[in-house]
Amino acid sequence: MRGICPITKCEDDIRKFHIYPKFLWKHLKRTGGTVFRSVDQPTKELQNGLIINLLGSKAEQMFSKREMWFEKNLFTPYVNRKLYNQKLNYTEDLYYFAISLLWRALYIHQNSINRDDLKTICLEALEDWRSYLNQETKLPQIFSNIYIMPVSPKLLSLPYGYYDIDSYLMREFDNNVMYALNSKDSAIFCKIPHFIIWGQLVREDLSINYGLKINPYGGKFDFKKFSIGYGLIRNHICQQIEISAKEADRVSKGLSEKSQNSMLKRFKDNIDHIKGSEMGNLLLERTH
What CA dihedral angle connects 213, 214, 219 and 221, to 10 degrees? Predict the structure, then answer.
């Protein structure tokens, strides 16, 4: 369909686009997944995650190029444990990828922000990031502090079995705008399997640990020295884990017997694919 691309602001062929990159859904399938479901429509089976009409062809190409870099150079080596205790040299592609992920999450959910002051800031961030993503500016003019945080139960130092922490950190997607109750600190939060990307909106408390700050022009990360620690960010992640687990429990209790039997049949039909996989191991932990 023809329309105005929200990145280039030009008329273009608007294409179906993954809110979360396609390679992440492929990873989940490869490690035990068969179909995907959302808490909004738990009985509806999705083959490739959430796809909507969003970007024009030019913007899609710019986004896809950076997604390929992230998959090959950071995501795949990290989940294969080749970077857990190693250093990573990265390029400006990581910075672009992180902002592209934050932009699409904020773009989709901008109308759900109910605080007027925060909504104004988010709209400013959207335009600032759009200009950068479309290469109209070399860097975002205001909202340039972007961070990446590798996440694991060990880094969070949470007790075993804490609200299905492994499932949330390794296999779920999540995003929202986080704000502190006692200050103006706020940030956009986008969680993908194994990583959280943060975009700083307002900062007063310099002690807040958003993770590893991404240099716009490239740099080096030392994953061995990274620690989440305690404080606002750890508490926020724990809160999101709890919300996710309770929401999943609420949805599962509301499913009809027919829906439950259908899901159980799919599970049994794919048992060989699931057995021994990442998802299979998580399911095994839950049964114990």
Answer: 50
